Amino acid sequence: MESTLKILFVSSEAVPYAKSGGLADVAGSLPIALTEAGMDIRIVMPLYPSTKKVMLDKTAVIEKIAVPLGDLQLAASVYMTRSTKRVPALFVHREDLFSRPALYGSRAGDYYDNLERFTFFCHAVLRVARELDFRPDIIHCHDWQTGLIPALLRGPYNDDFFKNTPVLFTIHNMGYQGVFPGHKLNLTGLKGIDFYHQEGLEYWGNISLLKSGIVYADAVNTVSPTYSQEICTREFGLGMEGILNNRKDSLSGILNGVDYEIWNPEKDKNIPRNYSIKNISGKTICKREVIKEMGLDSSLMEKPIFGMVSRLDKQKGLDLLLEILDKLMALDTGLILLGSGDPAIETALAQAAKGHPGKIGIGTGFNDPLAHRIIAGSDFFLIPSRYEPCGLTQMYALKYGTVPIVRATGGLNDTVSSYEKGMGNGFKFRGANPEELFACIKLAIEFYKNRTEWKRIVTNGMKEEFSWKKSADRYIELYRKLKSQRMITG
Ligand code: ADP
Ligand code: GLC
User: Fold this and answer.
1) Choosing a second label site near 252 at 20 to 30 A (CA), which of 1, 59, 75, 327?
2) Comparing 6-257+469-489 with 282-465, is the CATH topology the same?
3) Residue 302 burial (C-beta neighbours within 10 Å; 0-12, 13-18, 19+)
4) Residue 389 Cα: closest atom of ligand 2
5) Tens digit of pLDDT per residue, the chain (490 long)?
6) Closest ligand 2 atom, CA of 21?
7) Distance (Å) from CA 271 to ligand 2 centroid
8) Bridge partners (DSSP) listed for residue 72
9) Rounded distance from Cα 382 to ligand 2 centre (Å)
10) How is 411-436 classified by DSSP, letter by letter?
11) DSSP 8-state assignment for residue 223
12) Domains of the chain: which residue ranges?
């Protein structure tokens, strides 16, 4: 039997404790799959107000611990809880840094002190592991918020405790690079001379915590095979393609999975009627209810309804959708969209909806139960992303018998296959332009009208299984490889 690995799993958000996007879904469900595969995990994340509300039990495991931030030593306390699946999670508590209405910023922009907040968090993670004597076999870090950890382990924490601890750094999105002014380097606790250079975390005169993660981790991965190749190009690397190419030998793509305990039409408590591949009739009720809830004309019951649940961000290709909206409505369709994020996109959508009363329903803000109802009640699910590292909603939509229409990029490309001659689960278009999106939608509607073909597409999708088990096994394989490499090279 293979040995159990001790894994310190570090993320700035995780379901059910705090969520702004897909990272939280991954950090919530991958540790469950790893635990089921016999691993010994501690999730570590900050304690936000939303976290307090869902913690089942709250035990202070460290009353007070000193954490450096530049020349200061600040106090933190640490709480621990186990989720319903009994994966232990540790929460770093510091009121002034993490007790805020949102995770990273307000509508006005990012919080001004995000460097301070996540530098503090990274130091705290390593100190907490030491204090609790949790000697990890691997540290698994996610996104820029944790990107300082691999560098810290080569600097102030390069000690006996962490001597043989490799770090895996997972990139969920190249668009968020954690860039801060170079003159703030002092805050991080890293010596400039060792770290602040082109091969280090210096990035055009600034500090980039994403770059720090990429450069100093033992290995780097992204959340789909296609995206791991894309980011080595100029278009998708967003300025980091050079350093990613330097690390090509240690870069891989591991597809995210789906937590079918949460995203499953057979047992979803958020939807008005459950249904399954064997008896899909409940989906019609979900459609009727969501049409009502979002204020659409009941006559649209017989027409194709397009759903979308998304962060409102340039990444997600909402501009492409806005460009074709009038033409889409002329095809006698309905659109239901739930989004939060960029206020300018929100305004543009609200404006467009006004022109089509009873045909477009827009929900704003973050509303998880509504997200479930839209995914269940729509016929099609639209994801016209300009880039998409993995994308989870297309995989959710498939399970709910909602046919995805996606741009062939990143994880969308790896999970959606264009329907043709009875095979395939959705529709894909290549170019990031409104013409190709519209042509793809028109083709998809033709299939919607043919009930035999439609049933086939829906069934093909519902049969798909993107379970975490397979991906967890790939992560474990990678953890073991990194660990044995460290034992050899030290
Ligand atoms: P990303 O992480 O880039 O936002 P993903 O597709 O990986 O994209 O994950 C998005 C997750 O966030 C999904 O679980 C989706 O349901 C959820 N989501 C996005 N926007 C909202 C919203 N406004 N309300 C509720 N859930 C949302
Ligand atoms: C990011 C990406 C998304 C991915 C998610 C989880 O936020 O934008 O594509 O699914 O992380 O890995």
Assistant:
1) 1
2) yes
3) exposed
4) 9
5) 689 999 999 999 999 999 999 999 999 999 999 999 999 999 999 999 999 888 766 779 999 999 999 999 999 999 998 766 679 999 999 999 999 999 999 888 999 999 999 999 999 999 999 999 999 999 999 999 999 999 999 999 999 999 889 999 999 999 999 999 999 999 999 988 899 999 999 999 999 999 999 999 999 999 999 999 999 999 999 999 999 999 999 999 999 999 999 999 999 999 999 999 999 999 999 999 999 999 999 999 999 999 999 999 999 999 999 999 999 999 999 999 999 999 999 999 999 999 999 999 999 999 999 999 999 999 999 999 999 999 999 999 999 999 999 999 999 999 999 999 999 999 999 999 999 999 999 999 999 999 999 999 999 999 999 989 999 999 999 999 999 998 877 6
6) 7
7) 24
8) 69
9) 16
10) HHHHH--B-BTTB-SBEEE-SSSHHH
11) S
12) 6-257+469-489, 282-465
What's the predicted TM-score (pTM) here?
0.96
CB 436 within 8 A of CB 442: no
- State the Cα–Cα distance between residues 418 and 269, nearest whole angstrom: 31
C-alpha dihedral (205, 208, 211, 213), degrees to nearest 10: 140
Q: How far is the CA of 181 from the centre of ligand 2 (A)?
A: 26
Which CATH code fits 282-465?
A: 3.40.50.2000
From the list 225, 222, 190, the residue with the least C-alpha distance to 208 is 190
CATH architecture for the domain at 6-257+469-489: 3-Layer(aba) Sandwich (3.40)
Distance CA(235)–CA(237), nearest Å, equals 6
Residue 130 vs residues 81, 158, 159: alpha-carbon distances, Å: 19, 12, 11
421: left (phi > 0), else alpha (psi -120 to 50), else beta? Answer: left
In Å, how far from its chain's centre is CA 196? Answer: 29
Specify the amino acid at residue 350.
A
Helix runs in 37-104, H state only? 49-54, 95-98
Mutate to test the pocket of ligand 2, among 145, 172, 407 (most ligand atoms within 8 A of CB): 172
User: Which residues have CB under 8 Å from 263's CB, separation 6+?
Assistant: 372, 375, 395, 396, 399, 400
